[in-house]
Amino acid sequence: MRSTLMLIVDFVLFFIFPLVFWELCRDMAGDYPAMILSTLPGILYSLYRFNESGKLNYTGVCVVLNLVTGLLVDLLSGSALQLLWNNVFYSASLLLIYFVSMAARKPLYLYFTLDLMALRGYDRKTTKALLFEKKTFKLFQLITLIYCVNELIYIVCLSRWIMKYGVEAYRFDILLDKSLNIMLSGASVAVFFFIHQAVNEITPVKKITYTKPRRKLISFTSYWTSFHFERTFFYFSTHKR
Prior knowledge:
mainly alpha; globular; about 80% helix; single chain; about 240 residues; 9 helices
């Protein structure tokens, strides 16, 4: 139930609010200020979520870096049109990072999955060794390749829309960004399921014992699937496009 509620909050703050605020307030506030103000609730919520987790893990660091970098890009853009182009350039940077991580055989999704597995109660060191096994590693390379394709689609589409519609492309930016986030989250959940199964087939993963667990450990059920989808959607929603 909590993960479903969080997913709704994610959807409202990262999709509904920016789109509605842009459409209703741009004439009063101006295009550039409206773009910046439309993202503030999502930024504040992301910082709250990071503080609530209480862990400076890999995923948390990536979220904070994306938030800080995205905010700086917005504030230094100087105009609405330049902000849109900077979104394209930032997405190109993400594409390069994903590609390099895949070429270096250290796919980013592996570390994101490791954080989730550790959150679920698995021993981090043991699980990391298992995730680098050949059977699971190929899946991480596959999902990282999907990340690259996701960024490439965004770059091509938004660039064409900017050249055709100018500042009006911002509404398409929001729609495209969140649509890709939802599809990528779904793909990530599917891959995570196969990875989870593959890890348990290799060897039972040793779980750590919490003296005072923050949350009850859960089996791989529909709730856990929902939780993973929400976490993945939140992670990609905090990416500055």
